[in-house]
Amino acid sequence: MSSTEVLTAFRELAQLKQLDRNELRELIRDGVYAALAKKYGPNVRAEIAIDEMNGQIKITVLKEVVAEVEDPSRQVTVEEARWDDENFQVGDVLETDVEFSEFGRSAVQAAKQRIIQRVREGERARIREEFADRVGELLSGEVQQIERGKIVVMLAKFREAEAIIPYREQNHREHFHQGDTIRACLKRLEETPKGPRLILSRGDPMFVTALFKLEVPEIQQNIVDIRATAREVGSRTKIAVFSRDDGIDPVGACVGLKGSRVQAVVNELGGERIDIVPWSPDPERFARLALAPARVARVFSEPDTKTVQAIVDEDQLSLAIGRNGQNVRLASELTGWKIDLYSSREWLERGGEGPLFNPLPPREPEGEDAGDVPLAELSGITQDLLAVLTAAGYRTFNDILDLERSEIGAIAGMTQEMTERLATLIDELTTTDEASEAKAEAAPEAPADPAAAPEAPADQAAVPEIVAAEPNAEALPSEPEAEAPPSEPNAEALPSEPAA
Questions:
Q1: Three-state SS string across 256-305, please?
Q2: Average pLDDT, the chain
Q3: Engineering a disulfide at 55: which of 4, 237, 249, 271 sits with its beta carbon 3.0 to 4.6 angstroms away?
């Protein structure tokens, strides 16, 4: 292969990997030096001249003329040097031109490995530079494969990047297949032995925020800001919005004309209900708005304990609590304050003193209760395997859930038998979780517990709920009134009776 053909191949590689001219020149130099080191020795000295206009690469090996050779890769004896020129003396430098055809198979392979290594290092550096400041942004791509519960995504604009959606970052009511188009937000950039890995999420509250930013121009222009978000994946989300312009209603901007903007977000979330409320710096007013759609009669706050006591009418109590306490739980997460609910009758009976019931326990994020199980409690973990995992810093099932088989084998002290046993255990547990989730979705919904709070009316649960707590918020169009049934076509009009 001539130098012209080599330079052409390098140009095609640079165009494919999006390398600039300086990176291309350094790539060629590193490859040639690797080949020279394989042929002459690790300390070889050479001059490499690259003529891009003529497509030529000139390689000249430099060796110092000495009386006694200590390093053959960069020194030559006077006798050998005088074979070319009798005037060589000790201390002179012998220059020898080298053609590409003189490199052997091993030298070419060394150059190839060096070039591949440099290209991969450049790709990893570009991935870090591209995505380090894009946490929370919306990314789109194609589902490449689904393995052990996690989704591997090939990004549309950066195919070299490795991107995955872990099992605990998914909405388990959604199901994707290979080749499907998918959108998710970038949660974090993770370093692995293979390079940076992008961790995407469709279950994090920031995914809802990214979708609203895409649909609402006022959010993109920093006129409207989403100050707080609370979410139970696949079920319901509450967001608090604030406008920097008094002339723009933040709730109406997010809802859109006839609900077009919020409906686009609801469709992407698979029908998840969304409550949009105004944000307020006053905790009492914010708590009153966060409990929407329930109407709150009075609110009292205790700043020392960050507790809010909300009193609602009897007919609003079940709506304020929500299904299984969901509404008050999300309102508490949205405001950052603990909210205690009281009906007006119970408040008067107690004289307005003391809580009427124990506060709801903090609800763990969906999908993480099973993953937080300590490794010592898993039946398939032996003592020797537990000792190796503990020494490596893995404590719970969540820590090992997304480990690749190669990453498991790279753990210090891990044998082949332990690797196979742990990989099989992870496959069994994640497959069991997915089967249970599918079975729960296929089964008919069980009747509600009579002791639990009654649910909201059926007409409110049938469509995505959009709450506008402010009077000036844009409302959705009301249903047309039912028309009176038409009279029979063949009925004759009877004459009216004369007045008495």
A1: CHHHHHHHHHHHHCCCCEEEEEECCCCHHHHHHHHCCCCCEEEEEEECCC
A2: 77
A3: 4
**Which pTM does this prediction carry?**
0.59
Q: Are 155 and 182 in contact (CB under 8 A)?
A: no
Structure token digits, residue 87: 């005037």
Chain segment 423-459, per-residue pLDDT in tens: 888 877 776 444 455 554 544 444 444 344 444 443 4
HEC assignment per residue over the chain = CCHHHHHHHHHHHHHHCCCCHHHHHHHHHHHHHHHHHHHHCCCCEEEEEEECCCCEEEEEEEEEEECCCCCCCCEEEHHHHCCCCCCCCCCCEEEEEECHHHCCHHHHHHHHHHHHHHHHHHHHHHHHHHHCCCCCCEEEEEEEEEECCEEEEEECCCCCCEEEECHHHCCCCCCCCCCCEEEEEEEEEEEECCEEEEEEECCCHHHHHHHHHHHCHHHHCCCEEEEEEEEECCCEEEEEEEECCCCCCHHHHHHCHHHHHHHHHHHHCCCCEEEEEECCCCHHHHHHHHCCCCCEEEEEEECCCCEEEEEECHHHHHHHHCHHHHHHHHHHHHHCCEEEEEEHHHHHHCCCCCCCCCCCCCCCCCCCCCCCCEHHHCCCCCHHHHHHHHHCCCCEHHHHCCCCHHHHHCCCCCCHHHHHHHHHHHHHHHHHHHHHHHHHHHCCCCCCCCCCCCCCCHHHHCCCCCCCCCCCCCCCCCCCCCCCCCCCCCCCCCCCCCCC
pLDDT tens-digit profile of 81-120?
888 777 888 888 888 888 766 766 776 677 777 777 877 8
Nearest 5°: phi and psi at 109? -65, -40
